[in-house]
Amino acid sequence: MKSRLFLLRFIIDNMLKINNLHASVDSTEIIKGVNLEIKPGEVHAIMGPNGSGKSTLANVLMGNPVYEVTSGNIEFNGEDVTEEPVDNRAKKGMFLAFQYPEAIPGVTIVNMLKTALTNIEETEYTVVELRLKVADAMKDLGLSPDFVDRYLNEGFSGGERKRNEILQLAVLNPKLAILDETDSGLDVDGLKIVGEGINNLRNPERGYLIVTHYQRLLEYVNPDFVHVFIDGNIVETGTKDLSDKLEKEGYESYL
């Protein structure tokens, strides 16, 4: 019994553990030895200049097959998921909100969410059940009731696309949420809505990895840790004060 409790505690204390991770695309190394641990309830922000590899890291964590892990590994809840396909990672509780969500004509949001939730939870949801499940989240995000009947991201504004990503986060209820520049393309009102949406979904069991170029989202979502990401690696770690410094001084001193 003691050994089982110790194992459970170990797993809980190490929701995400990235060990000396290296990854490439088309034989070009982009991720160069990243080490990072995220515990349940923690919010980590990755900040860095354009082209530093932040979005690549997010995609590698979620298993995008475009990228090749050349060494190191990714552990999620104590299990090595480095070779796991995207759908298995999603079923285990990992989620990625895209920087540039793609439009998928002919597929409604409600049907996409129904299919995703059914596969993740292995429980068959009806469209009516799904509508009831998303009603409160849609209201919080300032979305109209007929929003879920629209085709996925087709004709959406930048703000609608990003709010749709947060809606998916609310419905799919992952253990780890990776948000890849969710603040890009948002005006002040949209930024506030998305920030408040993320805050409403914070809980002691869920970890967050927020990838961002600017500090403005962190005005609404207060991170526990801020990591400076330069040339494929974390070069400094601090608290919210570090993001304030980056906003004032930029990344010049790290380049």
Describe what this molecule looks like in 3D:
With 255 residues, the protein is an alpha/beta fold. It has a single domain (2-102, 158-254), classed as P-loop containing nucleotide triphosphate hydrolases (Rossmann fold). It is 36% helix and 28% strand. The protein is built from 8 helices and 12 strands. The protein has helices spanning 2-13, 54-62, 86-92, 109-121, 127-140, 158-172, 188-200, 240-249; strands spanning 16-25, 28-38, 43-47, 68-76, 79-80, 94-97, 104-108, 151-152, 176-180, 207-212, 225-230, 233-238. It has a 6-stranded mixed beta sheet with strand order 6-9-10-3-11-12, sandwiched between helices. A hairpin with a 2-residue loop joins β1 (16-25) and β2 (28-38). α6 (158-172) runs parallel beside α7. It is globular. The model is unreliable at 1-11 (pLDDT under 50).
Instruction: Find the CATH superfamily.
Output: P-loop containing nucleotide triphosphate hydrolases
Helix content: 25-40%
- Please give the CATH architecture: 3-Layer(aba) Sandwich
Spatial arrangement of strands, main beta sheet: 6-9-10-3-11-12
Mean pLDDT: 91
